[in-house]
Structure formats: structure tokens, C-alpha cells
Design goal:
This protein is α+β, with helices and mostly antiparallel strands. The protein has helices at 3-10, 24-35, 54-66, 114-131, 142-147, 149-157, and strands at 47-51, 101-108, 135-139, 164-173. It contains 6 helices and 4 strands, in the order H-H-E-H-E-H-E-H-H-E. It has a 4-stranded antiparallel sheet with strand order 1-2-4-3. It is globular and about 45 Å long. The structure holds flavin mononucleotide.
């Protein structure tokens, strides 16, 4: 297995982070990976905000959590035993899991492929992070989070035009503890037709 394939196969969603901030060099590499992702029509319209302000991430994380209406996991169907999500553990009240860096990807409201562009960029970002030993977790409800009064205020402060909306969050930070487990994939989801 080459290094790239190994990176793809061993990346896991990380929800337990060290409080220590990632370095600026690491952040820059990760953000560049996001910019170089494929993008519809080569428009390059998605914009990435990296927030490292703890107070803001905590407040937005609470808002993100409040927008969660998903089904709670059960003993037999959980998202992750090793890295419990807000669906697995009702005591977790931060949708960003205390990550020291939280990215938000914004894209035009009126472009058909905005969500796809942000999701593709998110994957490049998460793989780049993993290759540097940095954990990540894709977090949704970004539109809800930024529809809040705080979100709207920040969007303005950060200079993101109101024709853009938040599509995806990515929590980033050094994992707390080793991550060596494999998350098994369901079988029979691939068919090669010749
Ligand atoms: C579109 C999408 C939305 C997701 N939303 C969340 C989320 O809101 N919160 C969260 O903790 N994990 C979220 N995840 C992470 C998934 O739970 C995770 O990828 C899945 O359980 C597989 O585990 P793995 O990433 O460790 O392989 C999301 C993943 C994707 C692709």
C-alpha cells in the first residue's frame, strides 16, 4: 500500500482533541490542500474560514449542537465507540468537540454545486490533516449555525458576502490518544461490471 492509500484508509473522524493548537505551518498546508481540491466549473468559489478563537468556537459549537435533531445512537448502533459523537453521548454539548481549530467552508447560495464543492474540499482538507498527524471531523449543520445571530454577525465581520452560506465545518486538532482502530465498512457496496 503506498503512502497516499494508507492515509486514505487510516483516516478516522476524531472527536477527542488535545487543547494544544496546531502550528501555523500545518494549518497553511491543510488550507492549501482545500484550495487545490477539484471544484465545479473551476469557479473556485468556496471560501474557508479557519477560526482559532476559543470563545467563538465554543459558542458556535453550542449552537451547532442545538441544531442537532438526529436520532441518538443505541447500544447496538453507534457512530463511534472510540470517538463518540453527539449522537452517541448525550453529555457532549459541543458540536465541534472542543477542537482548537474549526474551519467553516462558505459557498454561494445560488450555485448548484456549492455543497459538492465544499464536501470535496473537506475531504482534501481531512486527508492533508491526517497526513500531518492532525485529527479532523466533518461537522454539518453549518447553515443552521451561521443562521444564528452570532453566526450572522461573524459572517459580516469576516467579510463573507451575504450571498454566501456556510456549508460544512471541519474540526481540527491533535488527537488525544492514539488512533489505531479500524472502522469496518459494510460489505457488498462495490460492484465491478465488465
Ligand atoms: C456528510 C458528513 C456529515 C457528517 N456530519 C458529522 C457531524 O455532524 N458530526 C460528527 O461528529 N461527525 C460527522 N460526520 C463524520 C461521520 O460520522 C464519520 O465519517 C463516519 O462515522 C465514519 O467514520 P470515520 O470517518 O472515522 O471513518 C460526518 C461525515 C460526513 C461525510
Amino acid at each position: 500500500m503506498n503512502e497516499t492509500i494508507n492515509c486514505i484508509m487510516t483516516r478516522r473522524s476524531i472527536r477527542k482533541y488535545q487543547p494544544r493548537q496546531i502550528t501555523d505551518d500545518e494549518l497553511n498546508v491543510i488550507l492549501q490542500a482545500g484550495l487545490y481540491a477539484p471544484n465545479a466549473g473551476s469557479r473556485q468559489s468556496a471560501v474557508i474560514i479557519a477560526c482559532q478563537k476559543k470563545t467563538i468556537n465554543i459558542e458556535l459549537g453550542k449552537i451547532n449542537h442545538a441544531a442537532f435533531h438526529g436520532r441518538m445512537s443505541t447500544a447496538t448502533a453507534y457512530i463511534s465507540k472510540e470517538q463518540p459523537s453527539i449522537a452517541d453521548d448525550a453529555t457532549i454539548k459541543d458540536g465541534f468537540y472542543g477542537a482548537p481549530t474549526v474551519l467553516t467552508l462558505f459557498a454561494p447560495k445560488d450555485f448548484l454545486y456549492s455543497t459538492a464543492d465544499c464536501c470535496v474540499a473537506a475531504e482534501s482538507i481531512m486527508l492533508a490533516a491526517h497526513s500531518l498527524g492532525i485529527g479532523s471531523c466533518m461537522v454539518m449543520r453549518a447553515k443552521d449555525t451561521f443562521s444564528s445571530a452570532l453566526g450572522q454577525k461573524l459572517q459580516k465581520e469576516w467579510g463573507i458576502d451575504e450571498s454566501y452560506e456556510a456549508k460544512v465545518h471541519i474540526a481540527l486538532g491533535y488527537p488525544a490518544g492514539e488512533v489505531t482502530y479500524v472502522k469496518a465498512r459494510k460489505e457488498n457496496r462495490i460492484k465491478v461490471v465488465r
